[in-house]
Amino acid sequence: MNSLRELRFDNTFARLPAGFHSRVNPAPLAGAHMVSVSPAAAGLLDLAVEGLHGPEALARLGGEQPLPGGDPVAMCYAGHQFGHFVPQLGDGRAMILGEVVTAPGARWELQLKGSGLTPYSRDGDGRAVLRSSIREYLCSEAMHALGIPTTRALCLLGSDEEVYRERIERGALLVRMAPSHVRFGSFEVFFYRGQYDPLRQLADYVIGHDYPHLSGQARPYAALLGEVVSRTARLLAQWQLVGFSHGVMNTDNMSILGLTLDYGPFGFLDAYEPAFICNHSDHRGRYAFDRQPSIGLWNLSCLAQAMLPLFDADDGEAAAAEARELLAEYEPELLRAYAEGMRAKLGLFDERDKDGHLGLRLLVLLSRPFDDQPGMHAYASEPPDWGRHLEVSCSS
């Protein structure tokens, strides 16, 4: 088992030009102490859990000492927030410490969340609070245990530092991991600036770093979008199957790898309430539970828009037509994954034509008050199809 000083780094994202990121250093937290370590996440790095509880790990992960081999950067990206484009966002309270190589072709980015101000902090303080950091730490590891793609949480540091949100709270630092933290908004920032050379460089980086099997494709950028469409569709199906509500499905919170990214205000359905809204700032219910599949498609359309210059820079109509064909695969893939998951939940061993009918009957029953339950004969007619039930549409 390794200690932090024995990790092998190869910081490929940090070697991209300055427009992709800004070099930063974490700001130490006052009175930092280790709250918890995830043994499963530590095992991915072959890290000794007991070593992460020692003073050296606390100093290096808490920002007091540099991590040997690391190269801290804050990512630059844009994004659509609640449907409105914001031209520059970026890591306002996070930074990538570096990329740990665990095996040939396998690597994990270590990211600090709550590590202090960056050039993208705007009016924020760059900090995270213990309350929300505990939620992300627990939920990301729980989502992994459920088999849902997600960023991972290595460890959680608490502190004596006071951070003001709606009240004074304790500051915290979350160390999270992912093969890549590139998101849809990473492409949008270059598209809307008209910087197509960096846009192509980013796409080439993502293919080489995360989708190397696409390098030999005749049209690798279209193949990349197709992969992201497929992964995102399956991810959204898994969210719906377990009753997970993300809360802030902005394009800057959508992973290019189809991971559950950025646990802000999130929640799970305690009872089946399709219109459940977990974010008190979402006054119009844009990110309500039953609208998540359609928002997934809407966000993918934003990514496709940003990638159009890579498809055909000289023929916009041809590029748009190709992108629409790829986006059209989203709904069938989501419905396939959802139906497969629903069959598993119902204990159905064989695939039959009426499986969707049976699953929808269950959801209709769950959505009704207990004292208003009709007999099962009331569902003899064919219910709405899966697509209508899940609101899969790009019109949101």
Give an account of the 3D structure.
The chain has 396 residues and is an alpha+beta fold. It folds into 2 domains: 175 residues, no CATH class; 154 residues, no CATH class. The protein is built from 12 helices and 12 strands. The strands form 4 sheets. Strands 2, 6, 7, 8, 9 and 10 form a 6-stranded antiparallel β-sheet that branches. The radius of gyration is 22 Å and the shape is globular.
In short:
The protein has helices at residues 39-44, 49-52, 55-61, 130-145, 184-192, 196-210, 220-242, 292-311, 316-327, 330-346, 355-367, 386-390; strands spanning 21-23, 33-37, 73-75, 79-81, 84-86, 94-103, 106-113, 128-129, 152-164, 168-178, 244-245, 267-268. The chain has 396 residues and is of the alpha+beta class.
List the helices and strands and how they pair.
Blueprint: E1 21-23, E2 33-37, H1 39-44, H2 49-52, H3 55-61, E3 73-75, E4 79-81, E5 84-86, E6 94-103, E7 106-113, E8 128-129, H4 130-145, E9 152-164, E10 168-178, H5 184-192, H6 196-210, H7 220-242, E11 244-245, E12 267-268, H8 292-311, H9 316-327, H10 330-346, H11 355-367, H12 386-390
Antiparallel strand pairs: 1-3, 2-9, 4-5, 6-7, 7-10, 8-10, 9-10, 11-12
Helix pairs in contact: 5-6, 5-8, 7-8, 7-9, 7-10, 8-9
- Tell me, briefly, the overall form: globular
Order of helices and strands: EEHHHEEEEEEHEEHHHEEHHHHH
* Radius of gyration of CA atoms, rounded to a whole number: 22 Å
Number of strands: 12
Largest sheet: 6 strands, antiparallel
Number of helices: 12
Structural class: alpha+beta
Total domains, how many?
2
Termini separation: 49 Å
- Give the overall pLDDT as a whole number: 91
User: Percent of residues in beta strands?
Assistant: 15-25%
Low-confidence stretches: 374-389
- In helices, the fraction of residues equals 25-40%
